[in-house]
Amino acid sequence: MTEQATENPKDHPVGNAEKNPDDWTTGDEAMTGAQASYLKTLSEEAGETFDETLTKADASKRIDALQAKTGRGQ
Predict the structure, then answer these.
(1) Using one digit for the tens of pLDDT, what is the confidence trace for 8-29?
(2) For the whole model, what pTM was predicted?
(3) CB-based contacts of 67: which residues, under 8 Å, 6+ apart?
């Protein structure tokens, strides 16, 4: 009898790190403090308005957009 190897997600911690924010189960909650802090910094650097009312999912999308604009996170 052969042992079947089961994949342990912890063996590949970044394998599932790229999940679409629209699919997050907590995406409609208020953004986290860390997201707000980073988003505020990015907004200032990009000369954009910081929106403190974004959800977790929307903040993540906005961070991605501002990172592309500012060249951060590359």
Answers:
(1) 655 655 555 678 888 888 889 9
(2) 0.71
(3) 42, 73, 74
